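Dear Dr. V.,

Thank you for agreeing to look over these. As mentioned in my earlier message, I'm a first-year student in the group and I'm still getting used to reading structure tokens, so any feedback on how I've presented them would be very welcome. I ran two proteins. I've put each sequence directly above its structure. The first is here:
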Amino acid sequence: MISSPLDGKSFDVIVAGAGSAGSAAACSAARAGARTLLLERHGYGGGILTAAMIHTFDAIKSCADNDVEVVAGFARELLTEISALGGDATADNPSEALTIHPEVYKVAIDRLLARADVDVLYHAHVCDALLDDSRVIGVEAALRDGRARFRAPVVVDGTGDAEIAFYAGAAFDLAPDLQALTCHFRLGNIAPGRTWRDWEEITRRAMQAAHAAGEIKIFGGPWIIRLADGEISVNATRVYGNPVDAAQVSAAEQEGRAQMLQIWNILRRRAPELANSYILSGASQLHIRESRIIRGGYVLTEDDIKTTVRFPDSIAVGAWPVDIHPTNGYVGVHPHKENPPVPYEIPFRCLVPQAVDGLLVAGKPISTTHRAHGSTRVPGTSLATGQAAGVAAALSARAGGNVRDLDVHLLRAALREQCAIVSVPGTDAARAT
């Protein structure tokens, strides 16, 4: 094995993955006083919002009432930075989601990580967990200049696929009906003057006509984000497969790109407004909505969401509908926003894997049922659980690394100090400001 010059370095907290959850965790841990290392396999942060080009921070606001903010703290600072850089594209897009430009988002993350004094390594492929019995004491990563083993009393898994938890032997579930995968893409040189609602009507009409004529068997939506006049992002491809199976995800990536070209050609033929359009870019990776889900100290259920159960160890608030992209051949817009939930609470125990210490999991793989995951998986909620995991990691590292022994009252107070919302707005001191 060729070792990197960085091999053997130690930190207070290590975060794997620089998506919504990981970037929030890294900045929040560092601001809570922990020397923090962030490892990311791409050359930039942002996760599915940049690499998979989904463009929207769903569940920053309540889907039931768009005037109610449910995620603040790091998320608010990130959105302020994006807006200051000119990357806020929310003006003409769905009101329940906050839309951003992915290239600006990359720079905003870099700035916040630097401001928080996080040690960042891009092009770092985390390939194993370092263990002392059932305790995670660090990670191994493949870097551009060799392998490196980094040690820390607490590790945060922000990979989106629970990769560190998997390497550590943590229990997890993989649903037999994993949500559909999507290759998002952007079109330019489209007819000017249309709103995002116009574009959804135009593209859906074209795709339904193509489906009726037998030109295409399967597609979703389309759902459209309008990034600028003359440019749209299209969410329409629908691919099936297990995203943590190497062979299946490789085949799915190829299928997603093939579908992108097929759908673009249908839209050019059947929608005059798109006749002269061209593909600006396709996503660097598929949008993975669901893969491994850890088994934690508590499993959040759909009933918890619908009945708004209150948790004494609540550390984040969710607000997205149970949005599950089907794998049963469903064509078009699946039912999902008809009955949006009121804001609900997520307990800290959902971030703590069973039988493995020194590890916290944030973002998509937190401990839920398959149905509840359809709500908690979105980027806005991932920012919230990421901030909670980062602060918890810093506090636990200071106390010796036993994350399951952490005083949740201390954690909630520390999160409030970082202006995070820890309970449903209007209840027991949800936030400090």
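The second protein is here, in the same arrangement:
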Amino acid sequence: MKKYECTLCGYVYDPEVGDPDGGIAAGTAFEDIPEDWVCPLCGATKADFKPVD
């Protein structure tokens, strides 16, 4: 699964880890995260993330 980086603060969402504090279980693809999820570091929206190569 692809990782995604916040373009505002540099936080990288790793689907293998998820975001346990944000209620996102490990193994959750970025595409499957609810649209109202925000970056745990800066509060940016999903639209502010880009795929990491």
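From my reading of the second output: The CA atoms of residues 39 and 45 lie 6 Å apart. The mean pLDDT is 97. Does that match how you would interpret it?

Kind regards,
E.
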